């Protein structure tokens, strides 16, 4: 019931313009055991390189354990604990054998404020902080990253959002004040499968503006089409179809309308779930 995390500001418009726009081939198969363990196997082919991973997800009461093993024998373990202290969530991640990539994050939720802190598990770590104030309708917040090795702020960002049942507008000032981004999304139906959005980004150091419009349209209960186009001539399209219940086939393509001689990018993803 609170204002949400700082990362939620502008997220709805961003997801509509970026989510499912893929340029590789991906196959994901998920199964669920009687003990509550979810097993997922993923294979990805990008260019001439093939990768993949196998993951297991287990939830028990307020504890969530996620383990993934990739083709490079890297093991990523994420442990999420909810309400150890009331209104908090703690997320710990550790990657083997790269221990320096470990991270510990704590989130605190209140009716009118949300606070997060994250620390890398290594010597002289970076510390990320964010705070959001407001309500589910109106929220403003800021985030910053502090590098303990150099005693400097490496990032600071501020944002504001106004959310209504069928629309959301947001403004984010980022890149240490060098970039400002404004976005708006409007949902056309109660299920929020048909929507239109617009986003404009201004980079002050280069006087560069990028304006993107996009949308999604529910052809029927099983099929969704997405489109996006920016002022640089980049056009993207996504077709997503539910082939069987809970299993999605996604076909994506992006190309430059100002350079039609260039080879377009194509991506295909199939996610199978029981």
Automatic annotation (TrEMBL):
Give the source's domain of life in one word: Eukaryota
Query: What is a single molecular function from GO for this protein?
Result: porin activity
Please state where this protein is localized: Membrane
Q: Extract one GO cellular component term from the record.
A: pore complex
Output the InterPro entries linked to this UniProt entry: Porin_dom_sf, Porin_Euk, Porin_Euk/Tom40
The UniProt record lists the keyword RNA-binding? no
Q: What is its main location?
A: membrane
Task: Please indicate if the UniProt record lists Ion transport as a keyword.
Answer: yes
Keywords for this protein? Ion transport, Membrane, Porin, Transmembrane, Transmembrane beta strand, Transport
The record ties this protein, via CDD domains, to: Porin3_VDAC
PANTHER family in alphabetical order: MITOCHONDRIAL OUTER MEMBRANE PROTEIN PORIN 2-LIKE, VOLTAGE-DEPENDENT ANION-SELECTIVE CHANNEL
Hey, which family's this protein in? Belongs to the eukaryotic mitochondrial porin (TC 1.B.8.1) family.
Q: What does this protein do?
A: Forms a channel through the cell membrane that allows diffusion of small hydrophilic molecules. The channel adopts an open conformation at low or zero membrane potential and a closed conformation at potentials above 30-40 mV. The open state has a weak anion selectivity whereas the closed state is cation-selective.
Q: What is this protein identified as?
A: Voltage-dependent anion-selective channel protein
Q: Which organism is it from?
A: Solanum verrucosum
């Amino acid at each position: 019931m609170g204002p949400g995390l700082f990362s939620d500001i502008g997220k709805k418009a961003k997801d509509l313009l970026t989510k499912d726009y893929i340029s590789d081939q991906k196959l994901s198969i998920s199964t669920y055991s009687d003990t509550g363990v979810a097993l997922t196997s993923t294979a990805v082919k990008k260019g001439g390189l093939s990768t993949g991973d196998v993951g297991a997800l287990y939830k028990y009461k307020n504890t969530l354990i996620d383990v993934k093993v990739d083709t490079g024998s890297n093991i990523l373990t994420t442990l999420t604990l909810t309400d150890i202290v009331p209104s908090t969530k703690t997320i710990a991640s550790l990657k083997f054998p790269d221990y320096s990539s470990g991270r510990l994050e704590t989130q605190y939720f209140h009716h009118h404020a949300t606070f997060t802190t994250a620390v890398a598990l290594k010597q002289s770590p970076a510390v990320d902080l964010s705070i959001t104030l407001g309500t589910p309708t109106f929220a403003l917040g800021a985030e910053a990253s502090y590098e303990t090795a150099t005693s400097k702020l490496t990032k600071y960002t501020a944002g504001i959002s106004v959310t209504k049942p069928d629309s959301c507008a947001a403004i984010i000032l980022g890149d240490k004040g060098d970039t400002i981004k404004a976005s708006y999304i409007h949902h056309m139906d109660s299920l929020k499968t048909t929507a239109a959005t617009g986003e404009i980004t201004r980079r002050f150091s280069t006087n560069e503006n990028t304006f993107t419009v996009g949308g999604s349209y529910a052809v029927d209960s099983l099929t969704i089409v997405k489109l996006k186009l920016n002022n640089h001539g980049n056009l993207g399209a996504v077709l997503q179809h539910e082939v069987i219940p809970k299993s999605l086939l996604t076909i994506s393509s992006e190309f430059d309308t100002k350079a039609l001689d260039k080879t377009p990018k194509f991506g295909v993803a199939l996610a199978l779930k029981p």
